[in-house]
Design a protein that fits this description.
465 residues, alpha/beta, Leucine-rich repeat, LRR (right-handed beta-alpha superhelix), 15-stranded parallel β-sheet, three-stranded parallel β-sheet, 14 helices
Length: 465
């Protein structure tokens, strides 16, 4: 009897296992690959030992993130890559990321080019190549001009020569001439790169970068991080670019004065962190919705040349509607314009965000007077010092509706003076937002001071966070 029960139990157990196995085995390959797509590479490869059903399924996953540091040696790294790219499968590769570290992997990495060629043939859409090294760059030719599907490209520490950039993103040699001479009004998604990320790459000359960008006729987003030792002037011309993020760190030694020139009429979002370029020029800007500026216009004393560079830059961005200024840039811009008629007018700007020292806020009326239609201002940082405001700008009398102090208010004399300036003089102010420190005694004192301030607008609401 006991033996029959054990046999029956074993039978049921076997049926349950077979039932589970049947459910998995009946899943279609695309669904299994979709599951593996969301697993780390190591976990996806481990599934190959489950059964013959799973032995090669991971090779069909349309995504690969390959890092040389995950392998014990060069042979293991190359062998694994060859197995993936040289398989007999005919499926597509949606996303490919290669991270190769100098020192662990040799410089003569011709296999990388063959892997990328294989990915291009399998219609890769997102390609990320990062060649990690202190002063080494990947120099093998990349035949990306054969791609008909690449829409997102990221290159880090790669040497781009003229052969690459001349026709880097042309769909094919037969269409290359058409793409260079004309910019199509619409392009099927995937035919040409729309997002480009370039980080610490090496450009032998200025023309190389210009050709690289111009070979992307439907480029919409560019993230450009310039290597700290690169002193060239970067000229960017694009009839399609909408979003640009540019980073150029400060460096002490240079043989020439670097700069940036942007000609992108459709640009609507611009972020600049550049403490190296002597000049920064924006031309032919039709409209720009948002700009975030951290500029020093080079090092050294402020002379007539720097003054001219600042003025030229401001003239190029007068159509901005939303502007963010860091403390250093605000000081540089306002420090030279003692006369109001010298500062360009920002007639389209409605939102101004300023990070400033209290000592520099003496220039605030001058700057606000050049923004007659501003209705929202906020302030990020203040340091306690005495200050004075000699006049009230036009926007405070006609359009300013919202003021937001991002810094926590301590109730110091300089802080209260600035708050009083806005509350008393803003005729159409609807809301002024403050953040207190959370100290009950100090906050109570600050609140009492606020209640004593007469309001220039009967609709003004003071919001305490």
């Amino acid at each position: 009897m006991v033996g029959q029960k054990e046999a029956k139990h074993a039978c049921f157990k076997g049926l349950r296992l077979r039932f589970k196995e049947d459910i998995i085995s009946q899943l279609p390959d695309p669904l299994i690959c979709h599951i593996l797509y969301h697993l780390p590479l190591q976990e996806a490869v481990k599934t190959s030992v489950l059964s013959t059903r799973w032995r090669s399924l991971w090779l069909w996953v349309p995504r690969l993130e390959l890092n040389s540091q995950d392998f014990t040696d060069l042979n293991a790294f190359v062998s694994f890559g060859n197995m993936f790219f040289n398989s007999d499968r005919a499926s597509c590769i949606h996303k490919l990321k290669l991270t190769i570290t100098i020192g662990e992997i040799d410089n003569d990495a011709s296999y990388v080019s063959s892997w990328i060629d294989a990915a291009i043939k399998r219609k890769v859409q997102h390609l990320d190549l990062h060649w990690c090294g202190v002063s080494n760059f990947f120099t093998k030719p990349l035949k990306l001009y054969n791609s008909e599907t690449l829409v997102d490209l990221k290159l880090s520490e790669v040497l781009l020569d003229d052969a690459n950039s001349r026709a880097l993103f042309a769909v094919s040699e037969s269409r290359q001439r058409d793409l260079i001479l004309t910019v199509p009004a619409a392009t099927t998604t995937g035919e040409i790169v729309t997002t480009l990320h370039l980080e610490d790459n090496c450009y032998p000359n200025e023309a190389t970068f210009e050709k690289l960008v111009s070979s992307c006729p439907v480029l919409e987003e560019l993230n450009l991080i310039i290597h700290e030792e690169d002193t060239k002037t970067f000229r960017l011309q694009s009839r399609s670019l909408k979003k640009l993020n540019l980073v150029r760190a400060y460096f002490h030694f240079r043989s020439s004065d670097p700069g940036v020139v942007i000609d992108a009429p459709l640009l609507c979002c611009l972020s600049i962190y550049d403490y190296a370029s002597e000049s920064f020029i924006v031309n032919n800007l039709e409209s720009i919705a948002k700009i975030d500026i951290s500029l020093l216009f080079g090092s050294g004393v402020f002379d007539e040349r720097k003054r001219s560079n600042v003025h030229s830059f401001l003239l190029g961005i007068t159509r901005v509607t939303d502007m963010t200024l860091c403390a250093n840039t605000f000081e540089i811009i306002c420090g030279q314009y003692s006369e109001l008629d010298l500062l360009p007018r920002f007639g389209y700007m409605s939102h101004l965000h300023v990070t400033s020292r209290i000592s520099d806020l003496k220039w605030l009326p001058t700057f606000l007077d050049s923004c007659p239609n501003s209705w929202f201002c906020d302030y990020e940082k203040m340091i306690s010092e005495e200050m004075s405001f000699p006049f009230v700008p036009q926007c405070m009398l006609s359009s300013l509706e919202y003021v937001d102090f991002k810094v926590r208010i301590l109730g110091l004399a300089a802080e209260m003076k600035l708050i009083r300036y806005f509350i008393e003089n803003s005729a159409f102010l609807k809301r002024l937002t403050l953040r207190l420190v959370g100290n009950s005694a100090r906050d109570n004192y600050t609140l009492k001071e606020l209640l004593r301030i007469p309001r220039g607008s009967t609709n003004c609401e003071v919001v305490i966070l």
